[in-house]
Amino acid sequence: AKSTGGGVFTVYHPRMRDGLVERLELENDLRGALERGELRLHYQPTIDLATSQVIGFEALVRWPHPVRGMINPLDFIPIAEVTGQIVPLGHWVLHEACRQAVEWSAAAGGRPLKMAVNVSVRQLDRADFAESVAQVLAETGMPADRLCLEMTESVLMTDTEANLEQLVRLKGLGLTLAIDDFGTGYSSLAYLRRFPVDTLKIDRSFVERLGVIADDTALTDTIVRLGKSLGMATVAEGIEEFGQLAALREMGCGFAQGYYFSRPIPAAEAGRLFLEGATV
Ligand code: C2E
Ligand code: CA
Ligand code: CA
Ligand code: CA
Asked: What is the pTM of this model?
């Protein structure tokens, strides 16, 4: 720390510089990664709690960096959102996930496969987003009703008129919309009624403390009931233990994901899992 006079101290740390350089490097590498086709998707199964069957997957992007090793999406998605790279990146994710869904479903004799894809609010901001989704559906032959777009609650809060229009357009294509990490943002019940949302994904932070902290158990139960009373499906994320699964089943939660069933897995493995019609 050095004094700038007047008793004010600013902290200079060499790491701050590294941080910026690293960001710029990542940004640059990411552009290359997209162009060279280096990004990969992993797939985490979604389980129907009534039948214990794998009904589909959530696509989660992975970046195997040639030098740094595997980079976590939480370390590069925010950068891609700032630079706008999220738009081509998200488009690639959507296309690849739909392409795989169609392939796996065909291999399994046409058994329907639900594919969930994460969408950034930055993608939604683009006036041509719904059009680009329609184009992907047409190109890949993905039936619209098997695609679910996941977006966080912030979508419901920001620039609501434009977002509402965009969501209505997407719904018009016949796909389903999910609110991701539900319960962590500030979506009010009024927004839930206003926006054409089909599914609530209960955030892992609630599931984590199920049966441990009474308030979290009560909140989870409330979200499941809320979903039911609004005619929405509920998906619990981050199930790691049998006790959590049992509690969610009892509450009547419809679907689940989590390490208890499976971690996100590479495409080849996911394809096999679906083909076996696995009951996890
Ligand atoms: P998310 O959409 O909430 O995805 C769930 C995250 O929780 C994933 O992390 C998943 O691997 C992890 N997870 C699943 N089950 C469990 C569990 O039982 N225990 C624990 N501890 N973790 C579990 P991941 O793959 O690192 O992704 C992190 C976030 O990055 C995602 O959170 C999503 O917000 C974002 N993301 C990933 N792929 C994409 C993408 O293609 N586009 C966009 N816009 N965001 C993405
Ligand atoms: Ca998600
Ligand atoms: Ca989530
Ligand atoms: Ca989450």
From this structure: 0.92
